[in-house]
Design goal:
5-stranded mixed β-barrel, 6 helices, alpha/beta, fumarase
């Protein structure tokens, strides 16, 4: 795994920057992202299968797999930590094909998702699990944009500033989790 300073990236430039990122790179992400968890993914997937219009544009978008808690008085958002990404795997290849560029979550992804990330030159970022209150400090705005009936799992558009991430799977399909497993198998565990 490479050690380096964090790269600052804005989501508006994510598509062009995806090709220069490598698995293991540290990133400080700023810009707009959409929260989307299991139920929202299922609805988006079903709409895409019907060739229906989505309630928001996912072209070059980044999804954060999170269901934020309600905002306490005086703050923009409650705790907003990542959920396990694998639960979105069956929906992800179609979303990537439809224009999604980035995903933020925690944990491993399936081989089908890894291949789709490489095919569509997207990127999967890993966020720190269990640090939702800390992550919320990097969120400047939160606006509900779709599926209001899902409560905390509704889709929200967030504005991030310097959200700390690690590239989990890069645009070429290199997977940090596979790298770690290989390093350990070769006796290079740290």
């Amino acid at each position: 795994m490479r050690q380096m300073d964090a790269v600052r990236i804005n989501t508006v430039d994510l598509r062009k920057n995806a090709l220069r990122l490598k698995a293991g790179d540290r990133v400080l992400l700023s810009g707009r992202v959409f929260t989307a968890r299991d139920a929202a993914h299922k609805r988006l997937y079903e709409l895409l299968q019907k060739d229906a219009t989505l309630p928001f544009n996912i072209q070059n978008a980044c999804f954060y797999y999170a269901g934020p808690t309600p905002a306490p008085p005086g703050v923009v958002i409650g705790s907003c930590g990542p959920t396990t990404s694998g639960r979105m795997d069956k929906y992800t290849p179609l979303l990537l094909k439809s224009g999604l560029t980035g995903m933020i979550g925690k944990g491993t992804r399936s081989e089908d998702v890894r291949k789709a990330i490489a095919q569509y030159h997207a990127v999967y970022f890993c966020a720190i699990g269990g640090a939702g209150a800390l992550a919320a400090k990097c969120i400047l705005e939160s606006e509900q944009v779709a599926f209001d009936d899902l409560g905390c799992e509704s889709v929200k558009r967030l504005l991030l500033r310097d959200f700390p991430l690690i590239v989990g799977i890069d645009a070429f399909g290199t997977d940090i989790y596979n790298q770690i497993t290989e390093e350990k198998a070769n006796g290079n565990d740290r």
